[in-house]
Design brief:
Length: 762
């Protein structure tokens, strides 16, 4: 019954109190807010557990003020609500005129003897009032429901009106802001036009000054042009003379080109021979590298498969290889001394021959004229680039041979160091795998401890359920307190109606202001149109004047540019002629020196070709010796393979034992999972029993509220009981049904055992 007037969604306006008729006229004159709740009715007794309807047998005394079925009218009846039906119709519905007679029970003979007849007579009178007041309450319920429905409809209408008025206000505000923005933009345009007018006036004054300066400079430029034309004619005559001189020089240059082409062909032949020798050398290096990689691969396989026995064999091999490398180094040193001696002798013999030829050529070149020197200078610069490339190629060949000898020694040393390191890493890996076994066992202990933690979590969830039940009782008490809040909301509705009236008055003011602003806007637009017309006229006149002046200035600028270009071309031709004369002199001197160097380099290249052939022969002999040593090592490899097969057989037997141990571990895991599942099912059954007991207690409590459930649904359809929280069940892990077994050999067995471990402890 406490939820009779509560509606959480809609706020009520102040209304007439229906139960004021059941009280005295003095009580009717009290405040409306203090008499609005049904909990003041003496026919209901409030207890801690629930609300119970009082009966005539209860000991609580009923006041004498409720003896009337039709109480006197009060001033509260004269109150009116806005937008409601006429007051006469409401009072006609709420008036109660029936008066029923209720038979009083007979006096108990015990009361006559005790002297309490007066108290019993008062109780008998109250029972008559109780029967008639129940009918009054039923009629009051129906009337209040009608009133509530009407009030809800009127509230919805007023809310819609308020929403429409707010939208209109927002539209007016947006229009006002747009108008102010447009006015600001027009003002900005006016300021820009003023600035443009000022800038055009300044440009006009500057152009006038430039025109006056150009007119003064034109006379001086015309005199300079005349002098430049005379100089150009003299330069043209000199150009014709120089062109004829160039033709003669070109003929001599063509003859020299033919001679240089012959020399180029000889150099190309030499370079081809050098490239062939490079290819042969690269092939030898590739063969050596492939043989080294194969040897290192075989050594690594042997070290991975065998243990300590291989280390002793490796030490023997290292001793043999060290002896072989020392013998190879001694031979290389002996041959290097011989090669150096031969190079020195050849260079000394060729040096004297080259010097004699250079003296003869110097006498020949002194007889050449200045014209031939200039022609040869240009061509020798081009050829000098080709000769420098040949020198660089020869120096690169020397460096490559030196690097190859150094790298061969380093590779022999580093290969053995790498093989030692790989063996040490493999042994350390096996030791680390053995050390990881106790860590794996510790992870199993941690998982068993986590299962105990899950049990403690289940107990904590039970405690949380009990706390939720306590919270439910607190919520029921909060619902009772919300009845008082409804009365406060009614007062707030009065205030909002006053605010709406104020807003309507503000709307009228804003509309008047909008009308005035529209008028101002129209006047400002007319002013802007006039200003635009004036600005267009002024800009048109200024553009016409500027176009005429710009045409005059462009003509003058074109004449100046043509005269400047002619002067520049004349100066350039003079400078080019002087530079060419100086270049011819310098080129003739450089040609003599470079031609001598070319002859010396040709002789040296032929000597180097012979040296390279001898080096290739020595390398072939060394390669044959290496092949004989590799054949000797192949016999020792066969012996090591036999030992490897024996070790593989031992490893297969160890792997079978590992598989049997893994099967036992799987059985233990399945047993642990079975025990965990049994514990979970027992916990779930206990929880279900507690839930059934809780439902039985709830059904007993709901019987007390059975009488007022229909009334609650009519007055407050949103009322709903709080649903209990259902416990969530943890998903159980599925036991793996079966695992496949495979017999693996060598390295595959180790990989399979690692995979099984990783699957088990995930």
């Amino acid at each position: 019954m406490s939820n009779f007037f509560r509606d959480n969604n809609i706020v009520f306006k102040p209304r007439r109190n229906i139960f004021s008729k059941l009280r005295n006229p003095k009580d009717g004159e009290s405040d409306v807010s203090n008499s609005s709740s049904i909990m003041d009715n003496p026919f209901f007794n409030k207890t801690d557990d629930s609300m119970k309807i009082s009966t005539p047998n209860d000991k609580q005394p009923i006041p004498k003020d409720i003896m009337r079925s039709t109480p006197t009218s009060s001033p509260i009846r004269n109150l009116r609500v806005e937008n409601m039906e006429p007051e006469g119709e409401e009072e006609g519905e709420l008036e109660i005129t029936e008066v029923r007679e209720v038979t009083l029970p007979a006096l108990d003979p015990l009361l006559k003897n005790t002297g309490k007849e007066e108290e019993y007579s008062e109780l008998a009178a109250n029972t008559t009032v109780n029967a008639s007041s129940n009918d009054v309450l039923l009629e009051a319920f129906t009337n209040t429901q009608r009133i509530c429905s009407k009030l809800k409809l009127e509230l919805q209408r007023q809310q819609q009106k308020n929403g429409q008025q707010k939208e209109q206000i927002d539209q007016y505000k947006s229009e006002i802001s747009n108008m102010s923005d447009k006015i600001g933009s027009h003002r900005n345009l006016l300021t820009l036009l003023e600035e443009q007018m000022k800038a055009l006036k300044q440009n006009k004054s500057e152009t006038d000054i430039l025109i006056s300066e150009l007119s003064s400079n034109y006379t001086t430029l015309s005199n300079k042009v005349k002098t430049s034309t005379a100089e150009c004619e003299s330069l043209k005559s000199t150009l014709h003379q120089q062109k004829s001189y160039q033709k003669n020089l070109e003929l001599t240059i063509q003859q020299k080109k033919k001679e240089l082409d012959y020399l180029k062909k000889e150099l190309d032949n030499c370079s081809g021979q050098l490239s062939e020798e490079k290819i042969k050398y690269n092939e030898l290096l590739q063969q050596i590298t492939t043989s080294k990689t194969e040897i290192t691969a075989t050594f690594r396989e042997l070290f991975a498969k065998n243990g300590t026995e291989v280390i002793t064999n490796i030490e023997d091999l290292q001793n043999r290889i060290s002896t072989s490398t020392s013998s190879i180094e001694d031979r290389i040193k002996e041959h290097s001394v011989d090669i150096k001696n031969t190079l020195v002798v050849d260079f000394n013999t060729n040096k004297e021959f080259i010097l004699t030829e250079l003296d003869k050529q110097n006498n020949i070149f002194t007889e050449l004229t200045l014209e031939t020197k200039e022609i040869i200078g240009n061509e020798t610069k081009k050829m000098f680039k080709g000769f420098t490339d040949v020198n660089t190629a020869l120096t690169e060949m020397k460096s490559i041979f030196n690097k190859a000898s150094d790298q061969s020694e380093e590779l022999i040393k580093t290969s053995f160091d790498l093989n030692k390191k790989s063996l040490e890493e493999a042994v350390s890996g096996l030791a680390s795998d053995i050390q990881n076994i106790p860590k794996i066992l510790s992870t199993l202990d941690q998982k068993i401890a986590s299962a105990a933690n899950y049990e403690s979590q289940i107990n904590s969830l039970k405690e949380q359920l009990q706390s939720v039940m306590l919270q439910k009782t607190e919520v029921v008490s909060l619902l009772k307190s919300k009845d008082h809040e409804i009365e406060e909301l009614n007062t707030k509705i009065f205030l909002k109606t006053h605010e709406l009236d104020e807003l309507s008055s503000k709307d009228e003011r804003l509309q008047n202001e909008l009308i005035t602003e529209k008028r101002l806007r129209e006047s400002s637009e007319n002013d802007l149109s006039q200003l635009k017309k004036e600005s267009d006229e002024t800009t048109a006149s200024l553009h016409s004047k500027l176009s005429a002046k710009t045409e005059i200035a462009s003509l003058l600028e074109k004449e100046l540019e043509t005269s400047k270009q002619e002067l520049q071309t004349a100066n350039r031709t003079n400078n080019q002629i002087n530079e060419e004369l100086q270049a011819f002199k310098s080129k003739i001197d450089t040609l003599q020196q470079q031609f001598q160097k070319v002859n010396v380099e040709l002789v040296q290249s032929k000597a180097k070709e012979l040296e390279l052939e001898e080096i290739n022969r020595s390398l072939k002999e060394q390669f044959d010796e290496l092949e004989t040593t590799s054949n000797q090592t192949s016999g020792s490899v066969i012996k090591l393979n036999d030992k490897i097969h024996q070790l593989e057989k031992d490893k297969s037997s160890l792997n079978l034992e590992k598989l049997s141990l893994l099967d036992k571990i799987d059985e233990l895991e399945n047993k642990l999972k079975g025990t965990n599942n049994q514990k979970r099912t027992s916990v779930v059954f206990d929880h279900l029993k507690q839930k059934n007991n809780g439902n039985n207690t709830k059904s007993n409590e709901d019987d007390a509220f059975a009488l007022s459930s229909d009334d609650l649904e009519l007055t407050n359809p949103e009322f709903s009981l709080i649903k209990p929280i259902e416990p969530c069940r943890m998903p159980s892990k599925l036991v793996k049904s079966s695992r496949r077994k495979k017999l693996l050999l060598s390295d595959d067995m180790e990989e399979s055992s690692r995979l099984k471990r990783s699957k088990r402890f995930k």
